[in-house]
Specification:
The protein is mainly α. It is 70% helix and 0% strand. The chain contains 6 helices and no strands. It starts with a helix and ends in a 9-residue tail after the last helix.
């Protein structure tokens, strides 16, 4: 808990990114398990879209110069681009009545941008990975 408080104080953008990503992860799971096409599905779906967009937007301003990078952008930033392209596409599919395209796009975004990208955050040397594996947090811990 202390590490999260330190993160919030020293790196509020990273804390915001972590909070919105975690909320999108939980809400996305709920969305996948619930009945589709209902009013609540649409309301929760828009909430998930906002969380994913906020997470991706925040990530565009987070740089990591410790890992192989291009001007601070690492390979994990490809998820940022993917969300920026696929999120509007998934919305467009739903608006056009293409529910199969919508379902595939949104499920793919959940798996790719929430689950797979989330697994990358558990690597040693990254904030969540450092918490999980008990390794030092470079520049974050007090």
């Amino acid at each position: 808990m202390h590490a999260l408080l330190v993160l919030m104080q020293r790196h509020p953008l990273i804390f915001f990114h972590l909070a919105t990503a975690f909320a999108a992860l939980l809400l996305g799971l709920l969305m996948l398990l619930r009945r589709k096409g209902t009013r609540s599905h649409r309301l929760l779906g828009w909430t998930w879209v906002v969380l994913m967009a906020a997470t991706a937007l925040a990530s565009a301003f987070i740089r990591d110069h410790r890992m192989p990078n291009l001007h601070g952008y690492t390979l994990i930033h490809l998820f940022t681009v993917t969300v920026a392209v696929m999120l509007p596409l998934g919305i467009a599919y739903a608006r056009r009545g293409n529910m199969l395209g919508h379902r595939r796009t949104m499920t793919g975004l959940y798996v790719g941008a929430c689950l797979i990208a989330g697994l990358f955050t558990l690597l040693p040397g990254r904030f969540l990975g450092s918490l999980l594996w008990g390794t030092p947090l470079n520049g974050i811990s007090s």
